Write the structure tokens for this entry.
Amino acid sequence: MLRLPAFQFHAPETAADAARILAEDPANTRVVAGGTDLWPNMKRRHQGAKTIVSLRSIPEMSGICVDDEGGVIIGATTTLDQITRNETVQEKYPTLVKAIASISSPVLRNTGTIGGNLCLDTRCTYYNQNEEWRRSISYCMKAEGEVCWVAPSSPRCWAVSSGDSVPMLCALGAEITLHSTEGERIVPLAELFNDDGMHYLTKRPDEILTRVRIPAPSGERTGWWKLRRRGSIDYGVLSVAVAGWCSGETTDRIEIWLGSVGSTPVRCSESIDHLIGKPLTAETIAEAAALARKGDGANPLGNTDFAPQWRGKMIEKYVDAVLREVAGLPVERLVPHHGS
Amino acid sequence: MDSQDQKAGEHQQVFRLLNVNGEPHQTGFSVHHSLLEVLREQLNLTGTKHGCELGECGTCTVLIDGQPVLSCLELAAECEGREITTVEGMMDGNDLHPLQEAFADLGAAQCGYCTPGILVTAKALLEENPEPTRDEIVSALAGNLCRCTGYHKILEGIEWAAAKMRGDNDYTPPKEAIYGDPLPGEGDSHA
Ligand SMILES: Cc1cc2nc3c(=O)[nH]c(=O)nc-3n(C[C@H](O)[C@H](O)[C@H](O)COP(=O)(O)OP(=O)(O)OC[C@H]3O[C@@H](n4cnc5c(N)ncnc54)[C@H](O)[C@@H]3O)c2cc1C
Ligand code: SF4
Ligand code: FES
Ligand code: FES
């Protein structure tokens, strides 16, 4: 059996109690929600903790409701399955449902949570391995070692941001609430991420993510595609999320976000600037897609499935396809479609 | 920490009343033990298998309050007060569950290692959706790997069991499911 290391365990019933326990020793304590990321990582010994605080017994952190402005608030420990089954979310953000329904597998979505997906550890072929494997090539800097095996001369870690709900939620302008013994603060979700595979979140270790808020839909057209080897279980190697607001022919506002191509979700600002004020035609879309491949930290390296050069090419193809879908133009399927 | 919980050396010990297959079990174990470890090693319910133990294969699936969950990624300490069903709990007295019957009759299990996880996952599916389409079955099983069967017999077994459970006695599984596909050029040799 691949067993978890020993730890002290707490299952508080309020977010305030959880924050209090976490504040006692934030460096050696971790919170767990579904555990579908943390437990495998602890079993492989590349993450560890003396104390674990489970968020699962905190009723106030789970559930979905609509606020006064028509926005939707999702508690951090709401499971991915609960979100995809929720009628309000289905009606208001159908593309988000598509993104979340692609995560892991149905049985994992019964326990995996939205908070865990947003705080998901970054991933790398040299890191998500068992202890013996990592020891045999000597550890990398993300866990115990000194060098990066993907870019040995690099001073930093390039592990990949892989939470599949993130690009769509960023495109929709979601905000999160962070809770600690010092109180609550609300920040745009896009600001949660830090471009460093080791220190990939900007939140303090003593802060708990308690909820996500998505603004009320305001006429946006959305699209989302994900690339991976199999239709289930595998992590994505690329996801593309688009939300566009148009009046008549003109694009007033558009958000294009990529997942799994760097240590943070990547906003394609050059493509966005190129499209604003223009109609979405086959030509403008192709130009915007070419820009997406170049700019802004979309930097596929040799640390996920598939060759980096090919993944780079697929960025352009996928951005083109998703924008065409949003514009209502015919789209050629690039890979066979699998059920989730 | 529960008031009953104790420390044994470095390991925090917990005592929990676990309800497995309708039977209460008062059990003590280290708090970091998974439900899979406790089922197999404490309660001797070895029907639930251990494969990857990392969430990737689905063979350790059990039902918690009727929902498929991976027991390798579940802390047993968090399962008190919940209804746990393993493959051992699928029989009704001495009668096999229709899914077990269909799997046995069709040979939907070869080495059998994936079978317990697939059976309970299919049970949950059929309780929610008595007449699933082939695509719905494939989607529901998308977290369960089988390295032997190629899945066809598993899908056919679930369709047959679904028909039996709906009381549809006219349903017969496709002939290929029972006799195998005809060889190229042989045509329909089972006609
Ligand atoms: C085989 C397999 C395949 C997978 N495939 C995918 C995939 O395709 N796409 C994908 O996105 N994910 C995938 N996952 C990962 C995972 O199932 C989901 O991302 C899930 O949403 C994680 O949520 P969780 O509650 O299980 O996280 P946990 O494991 O509980 O937590 C993950 C991390 O977030 C922290 N955390 C959790 N909740 C909070 C909170 N409220 N506040 C602060 N920190 C918190 C934890 O400390 C931990 O570091 C896969 C997992 C497995 C095992
Ligand atoms: S990117 Fe480099 S440092 Fe980061 S996990 Fe991979 S090998 Fe380790
Ligand atoms: S043993 Fe649990 S998923 Fe493989
Ligand atoms: S029968 Fe052998 S793994 Fe499925």
Notes: The pocket of FE2/S2 (inorganic) cluster (ligand 3) is lined by residues B 50-53, 55-60, 70, 72 (CB under 6 Å). Residues 58 and 144 of chain B are 4 Å apart (CA to CA). Chain B touches chain A at residues 1, 10-12, 14, 30-34, 36-37, 50, 52-56, 58, 61, 67-70, 72-75, 77-78, 121, 135, 138-140, 142-145 (CB under 8 Å). The longest helix of chain B spans residues 152-166.
